[in-house]
Specification:
The chain is of the alpha+beta class. It is built from eleven helices and seven strands. The strands form two sheets. Strands 5-4-3-6-7 form a five-stranded mixed sheet.
Length: 213
């Protein structure tokens, strides 16, 4: 268990003692995308000290949130069913934090797993249900994601692929998702660069992924 002990008997206290230590929820966030090797977790959290990552993994294992599992002759970390129950909590926290996000600092980056979870957070299945199935090849800095939306289903995978619209953007994509900039203006000002496909599909993307700040 984590070293922090609040000395109170309540469900929230128990939750904070399990996942309240620094980096713990970000580890859970990345594992919600899929199982990860130790090195993959470290690469996705480039500022985490190795001793802290090892400690958090040990604590989360002891609490029954994650487990080690053999996959193709390597060991990966994955969420247990108990750990996966944190998904709506993580998404709700992401939506709450999004409301006060400003422009990114120079040193802030987008990782594949962080962007995947941001897309899950801002996905509007009620809107997508009335739109044609669409695939987006999105390049966020060095991160490449293939985003497929089919009705209320969202599938986000690493890498490029055949898409109706391919575009590139940096952390400024937040402005489009927040509705602070219109899709046409985002293209004109370079916030989003259309690489291939019909640029007007960016309107569909902005409608499908939206969370007002």
């Amino acid at each position: 268990m984590a070293a922090r002990d609040y000395g109170q008997y309540s469900g929230i206290t128990q939750a904070m003692e399990i996942v309240g230590e620094r980096w713990a929820l970000l580890i859970v966030r990345d594992l919600l995308v899929g199982p990860r090797r130790y090195g993959e977790l470290a690469a996705g959290l480039p500022r985490i000290p190795s001793n802290i990552l090892a400690a958090r993994l040990k604590e989360l294992q002891a609490a029954g949130v994650i487990r080690r599992a053999p996959r193709s002759r390597v060991i990966v970390y994955e969420l247990t069913p108990y750990g996966r129950e944190l998904e709506p909590v993580i998404l709700a926290l992401g939506a709450w934090g999004f409301k006060t996000m400003g422009d990114p600092r120079d040193e802030q980056i987008i990782t594949p797993d962080s962007m995947t979870m941001d897309l899950r957070t801002t996905f509007r299945p009620d809107v997508a249900a009335s739109l044609p199935a669409t695939a987006y090849a999105a390049h966020f800095g060095s991160t490449e994601l293939l985003i497929r939306v089919d009705g209320t289903r969202l599938d986000v995978r690493r890498g490029d692929g055949v898409a109706d619209l391919a575009f590139a953007s940096g952390p400024g994509i937040r402005r489009l998702i927040a509705g602070e900039i219109a899709p046409d203006c985002a293209i004109e000002t370079g916030v989003v660069q259309v690489l291939s496909g019909r640029g007007n599909l960016l309107h569909r993307f902005a409608d499908t992924f939206h969370l007002a700040a």
